[in-house]
Design brief:
four-stranded antiparallel beta sheet, Alpha-Beta Plaits, alpha+beta, elongated
């Protein structure tokens, strides 16, 4: 998933560069994040038997956050045990507080890397045609 995201960003950057657009020709994009990307993994040495015991409760509470609109999307990591959430919060501190309250976070069994995300900045350069001289 991260590889696809990076490929999309690279492709958009190449499109913008090939269009010959400059920053002065763009429509301003919001600079504040609109969501937070959370990647949850298990630290080395985590007792997975304890995780399995807590997991049913963790899944129910996570599903409840999704139903409340706080988790927009949720995925499993494909190459190792873990999750990816796209959260409907704008501050990393809000995301941290919400995820640490979940059973696996509260038990310090899962750690989250949090990334504020927003609209793809290079796309704004494609909205305005290059000026004609």
């Amino acid at each position: 998933m991260i590889k696809r995201l990076l490929l999309s960003l690279t492709t958009a950057s190449v499109l913008v560069a090939s269009a010959g657009l400059s920053m002065s020709q763009t429509t301003p994009m919001p600079t504040t994040p609109t969501k937070v990307l959370a990647i949850g993994t298990f630290p080395p040495g985590t007792d997975m038997q304890i995780v399995q015991h807590i997991l049913p409760t963790a899944v129910r509470e996570t599903a409840q956050l999704h139903l409340e609109g706080k988790i927009d999307q949720w995925y499993s990591l494909q190459d190792r045990a873990g999750v990816v959430f796209i959260l409907n919060v704008t501050e990393v501190s809000q995301a941290h507080e919400m995820l640490e309250a979940l059973p696996l976070g509260n038990a310090h069994l899962m750690t989250f890397s949090l990334f504020p995300i927003g609209p793809l900045k290079p796309l704004s350069k494609l909205l305005n045609p290059p000026s004609r001289r």
